[in-house]
């Protein structure tokens, strides 16, 4: 079986979440534990940082991995979803897993996969853990897929747990309130394992404190030495240290400020607790270099990324209201004469809220389109939602149209944009993945 055949097998026998949605989701760890046992339990041979959260967990993973690479470690990085190729999900020191590794894994384990029928994500997670263990990485940075408590990645016992933030996303699986979602994410917090919470929220803080108390990491108070849970956005002295030790970062989205703070605090905790006795050291220079060269070191793409200039073409993977609020701020700050926005979303996101967040002035033009996913809202549905969110046209209202195919929508924007204009593409990971390929071909 070659790589293309292996990928076709995975997609056809157990379609991934981004294609079929909820039917791909298999909560619980039974299948994953059976897979791990079948493979000789490679997850038990990994030292790892485990990262969950509604938004920012991918960027935070890449930030941490970049610094650890700069510190001279052999770093495995597991994230999802991919934008172009499945191999993007599994990297060692920035290099994607070889296609032959994917083909060999599926060939070797196909009979067992057919027997237990794991989900696409469970299968790829097993591939990642097996690959990292075989390659003897010094540390693996592991992003959860969906939730935390019942996520396939939660079979590991990490050196450090990180939860970036809590927002209203995947409510059909995780719950319809912030505390319920927080309880699911808090499931990655383990007994006696330090934890960093990236963003404090009054509705979720007690949930994390309760879980920390259950796991024996709360101590007598947040300022005591026996407390091993940190709220990164409350660590003002840590923010000042970050500005000294990592003054520059090549991730330019406004939302990256909080991700950088979360990653920085996580690295300090990792250095002070988890790395204390294993000979690894995270220097100030490693932090500075790691933050300054995240994309080059780890292969991160799609975070306020410039794809082309004249006109400026930017893409971003923000895909729910929590992420889009930062994207909207940056769109408003663009100084170009006109901004053309190619935008598409999937149906299980809070699209109505997003429509109200996006800038509504006449120097913006919207081209709504349909990402390549069975979960996608159609371009016409997006246009209808936009019109519903802005029912009373005013003199300076933006233009909006619907073009179903992403390539045609992007070409429309580029045809009408002047060299001095800006073009933004976003709203969905899947649309950004398509855009990266389309722009390369135009």
Radius of gyration: 22 Å
- Global outline: globular
- Helical stretch count? 18
Low-confidence stretches: none
- The neighbouring-strand order within the major sheet is 4-3-2-5-1-6-7-8
Class by alpha and beta content: alpha/beta
Largest sheet: 8 strands, mixed
Q: What does this protein structure show overall?
A:
The chain is of the alpha/beta class and 442 residues long. Helix content is 43%, strand content 13%. An eight-stranded mixed beta sheet has the order 4-3-2-5-1-6-7-8, sandwiched between helices. Strands 9-10-14-11-12-13 form a six-stranded mixed beta sheet. Strand 3 and strand 4 form a beta hairpin. Helix 4 packs across helix 11 and helix 14 packs parallel to helix 15. The radius of gyration is 22 Å and the shape is globular.
Write a short abstract of this structure:
By secondary structure, the chain is of the alpha/beta class. It has helices at 3-13, 17-20, 30-38, 57-70, 99-116, 120-134, 171-174, 178-185, 205-214, 236-245, 256-274, 284-292, 294-298, 321-333, 351-357, 379-389, 406-416, 429-441; strands at 48-52, 75-78, 90-92, 95-96, 139-143, 160-163, 195-197, 229-231, 305-308, 312-316, 339-343, 364-368, 399-402, 422-426.
């Amino acid at each position: 079986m070659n790589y293309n055949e292996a990928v076709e097998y995975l997609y056809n026998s157990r379609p991934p979440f981004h294609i079929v949605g909820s039917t791909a989701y298999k909560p619980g760890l039974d299948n994953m534990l059976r897979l791990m046992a079948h493979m000789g339990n490679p997850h038990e041979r990994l030292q790892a940082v485990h990262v969950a959260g509604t938004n920012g967990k991918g960027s935070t993973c890449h930030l941490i991995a970049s610094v650890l690479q700069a510190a001279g470690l052999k770093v495995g990085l597991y994230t999802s979803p991919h934008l172009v190729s499945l191999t993007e999900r599994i990297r060692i020191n920035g290099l994607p897993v070889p296609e032959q590794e994917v083909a060999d894994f599926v060939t070797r384990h196909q009979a067992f996969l057919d027997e237990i029928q794991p989900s696409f994500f469970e299968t790829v997670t097993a591939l990642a853990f097996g690959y990292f263990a075989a390659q003897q990485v010094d540390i693996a940075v592991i992003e959860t897929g969906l939730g935390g408590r019942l996520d396939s990645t939660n079979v590991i016992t990490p050196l450090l747990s990180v939860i970036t933030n809590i927002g209203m996303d995947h409510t059909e699986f995780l719950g319809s309130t912030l505390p319920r979602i927080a309880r699911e994410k808090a499931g990655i917090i383990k007994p006696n394992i330090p934890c960093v919470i990236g963003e404090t929220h009054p509705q979720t803080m007690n949930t994390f404190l309760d879980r920390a108390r259950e796991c024996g990491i709360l101590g007598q108070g947040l300022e005591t030495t026996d407390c091993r849970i940190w709220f990164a956005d409350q660590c003002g002295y840590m923010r000042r240290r970050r500005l000294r030790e990592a003054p520059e970062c090549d991730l330019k989205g406004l939302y990256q400020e909080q991700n950088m703070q979360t990653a920085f605090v996580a690295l300090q905790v990792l250095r002070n607790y988890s790395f204390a006795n294993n000979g690894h050291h995270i220097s100030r220079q490693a932090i500075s270099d790691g933050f300054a060269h995240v994309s080059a070191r780890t292969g991160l793409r799609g975070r306020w990324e410039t794809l082309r200039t004249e006109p400026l073409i930017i893409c971003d993977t923000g895909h729910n209201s929590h992420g889009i609020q930062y994207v909207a701020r940056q769109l408003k700050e663009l100084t170009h004469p006109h901004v053309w926005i190619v935008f598409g979303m999937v149906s299980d996101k809070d699209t109505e809220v997003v429509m109200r967040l996006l800038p509504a002035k006449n120097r913006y033009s919207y081209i709504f389109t349909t990402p390549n996913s069975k979960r996608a809202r159609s371009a016409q549905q997006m246009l209808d939602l936009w019109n519903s969110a802005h029912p009373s046209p005013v003199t300076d209202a933006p233009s909006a149209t619907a073009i179903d195919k992403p390539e045609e929508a992007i070409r429309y924007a580029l045809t009408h944009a002047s060299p001095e204009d800006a073009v933004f593409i976003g709203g969905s990971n899947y649309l950004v993945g398509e855009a990266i390929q389309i722009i390369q071909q135009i």
